Amino acid sequence: MATRRIPETESYEEWRDYCGFILEHSPTMRSTVAEHPLWWRELARQA
Questions:
Q1: How many domains does the chain have?
Q2: Which residues lie closer than 8 Å to 37 by C-beta, 6 or more apart?
Q3: Could you tell me the pTM of the whole model?
Q4: Within a domain: residue 42?
């Protein structure tokens, strides 16, 4: 979300891929995102 708010950011895809990887491989992150879906709306949709 942060990189989308900064038009000059060129690393959106890299951060999206990294966050997806962490979400996929981390039970703790999946649990945290599931508990607080409004904090990370895009990640909650991926979970």
A1: 1
A2: 44
A3: 0.65
A4: yes
